[in-house]
UniProtKB/TrEMBL annotation:
EC main group: transferase
Molecular-function GO term, any one: methyltransferase activity
Catalytic activity: uridine(1939) in 23S rRNA + S-adenosyl-L-methionine = 5-methyluridine(1939) in 23S rRNA + S-adenosyl-L-homocysteine + H(+)
Name of the protein in question: 23S rRNA (uracil(1939)-C(5))-methyltransferase RlmD
Species per Swiss-Prot/TrEMBL record: Halomonas salina
Function: Catalyzes the formation of 5-methyl-uridine at position 1939 (m5U1939) in 23S rRNA.
Family annotation (SUPFAM superfamilies): Nucleic acid-binding proteins, S-adenosyl-L-methionine-dependent methyltransferases
Binding, S-adenosyl-L-methionine: 296, 326, 331, 347, 373, 395
InterPro entries referenced in this protein's UniProt entry, alphabetically: 23S_rRNA_MeTrfase_RlmD, MeTrfase_TrmA_AS, NA-bd_OB-fold, SAM-dependent_MTases_sf, TRAM_dom, U5_MeTrfase_fam
Catalytic residues, chain numbering: 421, 421 (nucleophile)
Domain TRAM: 26-88
EC number: 2.1.1.190
Length: 477
């Protein structure tokens, strides 16, 4: 039997791995109120219901909604709070709905499906408001909502692959609170073309000679078609041929990362021109990307965010200088340049800087792409000390942009647009700006991932005293 090949099936010992895990969890609980009836007072930021036991101890309850009375089962006890799940809904909230996915409750991907879509979005707006309030920030009014369809929206996904002790191949997302995979034959949040691949992929994996060599699969859909990238631990000639036949039969672009320590990337079908499109006024921009590059999963909501950002930063005077930090493949930089702004787009990776420059060329746009470490004060000072710089846009990863915001507090510009994928780090960073005199003019929540607790957000901050700052600065950046 070759390395990574399927082992012959063996008889079950009578207890499944899941049952064993459950027994282990029960042994680890160390107490907790089983079968208690709880009234749910609110939702935590992660979407779990919050209530209190008779002794006042806080309980976070998976699958519970505000106003409900539920019978709970505690699955983990801690010193200051317990964690539980709903055993039975005694009195349901009017916001409770039937989850659209058959895998709800086992798959860990979409944990808010029991809450109406409107309720999910109001919760996300409340989360942003509360996190800002914790930093002493209270913007006027309610945050705007940028939202589209709740299903069929996700254009990329990473699926785990595992072969169990009995030789069965599993394909799917991880189970809730577990490393176990939940087999998926459908997923209502994937764009339909990707969802239709799940069952054929599962059957194909079961037919491979060495399925254990497959770590995970990455699926994506773009204007160039559908792309499948295999994470493969070791090459297997027979399975490589099978993968090519599978891709050819379904019109897929096929690539793989192969190797354990330092995996190498290669296309198994002709390399495509991978690109996504963005509409800017009457123009359609092409954003080229490569497997592994960041691309927003929800195309429609991303378009809404870009359109909103352009509106918030307008009017843009011809040649107006705009600094786009954490620019990625040019999601905001290219649209700004298309409107006539003089854009400097900054990324940390030299390869991503080259992708930015190439995207500007392919769209016939003037744009300066620069590499810089945006955690270093020296680099930030050079970027900000530019004559005529009036607008800064930043779209950082989940850990935020605290160093950037400290620099912007010391060197204020008239307008800052902060786009965030983590409201907690956004609130932390915005506090530096507000304390330095910036005022929030507009704010919004973007429902990028419906049926999950994840939210994107946008803040537009203006500094009333920045005026024409930087006109006399000596550096030209």
């Amino acid at each position: 039997m070759g390395l990574g090949q399927r082992r012959p099936a063996r008889k079950s010992a009578g207890v499944s791995g899941l049952q064993t895990a459950k027994r282990g969890k029960k042994a680890a609980r160390g107490g907790g109120d089983q079968g208690a009836i709880l009234t749910i007072d609110g939702l935590a930021h992660d979407g779990r219901g919050v209530g209190r036991l008779g002794d006042g101890k806080t309980v976070f309850v998976d699958g519970a909604l505000p106003g409900e009375r539920v019978e709970i089962a505690v699955h983990r006890t801690r010193q200051r709070f317990d964690e539980a799940h709903v055993r039975e809904v005694v009195e349901a909230s009017p916001e409770r709905v039937t989850p659209p996915c058959a895998h709800y409750g086992t798959c860990g991907g979409c944990d808010l499906q029991h809450l109406s879509l409107g309720g999910q979005r109001r919760h996300k707006q409340a989360v942003l408001r509360e996190l800002l309030a914790r930093q002493g920030i209270a913007p006027d009014g309610e945050p705007e909502l940028l939202a589209e369809a709740g299903e069929g929206y996700r254009r990329r996904a990473r699926l785990g692959v595992k072969v169990d002790a009995d030789g069965r191949v599993h394909l799917g997302f991880r189970a809730r609170h577990s490393h176990r995979l939940v087999d998926l034959d459908d997923c209502p949040i994937l764009v339909p073309a990707l969802a239709a691949l799940l069952a054929p992929l599962h059957r194909h994996l079961a037919e491979l000679e060495a399925p254990r060599q497959v770590g995970h699969l990455e699926l994506s859909s773009s204007d160039a078609g559908m792309t499948l990238v295999i994470r493969q631990l070791r090459e297997h000639d027979g399975d490589t041929r099978r993968w090519r036949e599978f891709a050819l039969a379904r019109g897929l672009h096929l690539a793989r990362w192969v190797g354990r320590e330092s995996p190498a990337f290669e296309w198994l079908t002709p390399a495509p021109d991978l690109h996504a499109r963005l509409a800017v006024d009457e123009r359609s921009l092409r954003l080229g990307f490569a497997p592994g590059d960041f691309l927003q999963a929800n195309e429609a909501v991303n378009q809404r965010m870009v359109t909103e950002a352009l509106a918030w930063l307008s009017p843009l005077a011809p040649g107006e200088r705009v600094l786009d930090l954490f620019a990625g493949v040019g999601n905001f930089s290219l649209p700004l340049a298309a409107l006539g702004a003089e854009v400097t787009a900054v990324e940390g990776s030299p390869a991503m800087v080259e992708r930015l420059a190439d995207n500007a060329r392919r769209n016939a746009l003037e744009l300066t792409a620069r590499q810089a470490d945006l955690s270093r004060a020296e680099a930030l000072g050079t970027l900000l000390d530019v004559p005529g710089l009036r607008q800064v846009l930043l779209d950082p990863p989940r850990d935020g942009a605290e160093a950037v915001c400290r620099a912007l507090a010391e060197r204020p510009v008239p307008r800052v647009l902060y786009v965030s994928c983590d409201p907690a780090t956004l609130a932390r960073d915005a506090a530096h700006l507000v304390r330095a005199g910036y005022v929030i003019q507009r704010w919004a929540v973007a429902d990028m991932f419906a049926h999950t607790a994840h939210l994107e957000s946008m803040l537009l901050l203006e500094h009333p005293d920045a005026g024409q700052r930087g006109e006399g600065a000596s550096s030209d950046g």
